[in-house]
UniProtKB/TrEMBL annotation:
The keyword Disulfide bond does not apply. One of its GO terms (molecular function) is aminoacyltransferase activity. Keywords: Acyltransferase, Cell shape, Cell wall biogenesis/degradation, Peptidoglycan synthesis, Transferase. PROSITE patterns: FEMABX. It holds the Pfam family FemAB. It comes from the Bacteria. It comes from Faecalitalea cylindroides ATCC 27803. Belongs to the FemABX family. GO terms for biological process: cell wall organization; peptidoglycan biosynthetic process; regulation of cell shape. Coiled coil: none annotated. This is BioF2-like acetyltransferase domain-containing protein.
Length: 85
């Protein structure tokens, strides 16, 4: 079992994964980052044996005093088997 975390994911692959989830939310769509134009963003993914099993849009807001806030609205999105604890 080999996991790999990426901070840049292809738009088509990201949207296909998010839209296939029963937990899909508009706030996790690839293009939501365009609406939040005053925030920086990262489209992240987690691969297990080269298969995408998790994804999330991370929004980054610059704050005073050289601080930042990271926010994953209604996410991340995970494949169902990985939701069990």
């Amino acid at each position: 079992m080999n996991y790999r975390f990426v901070t840049s994911i292809n738009k088509n692959e990201y949207d296909a994964f998010v839209q296939s989830s029963p937990y899909v939310n508009l706030l996790q769509s690839y293009d939501w980052a365009l609406i939040k134009h005053n925030w920086k963003h990262i489209h992240t993914g987690v691969y297990k044996d080269e298969k995408l099993v998790g994804a999330g849009l991370v929004l980054i807001k610059e704050l005073p005093l050289k601080m930042s806030m990271f926010y994953i609205p209604r996410g991340p999105i995970l494949k169902r088997p990985y939701l069990k604890f």
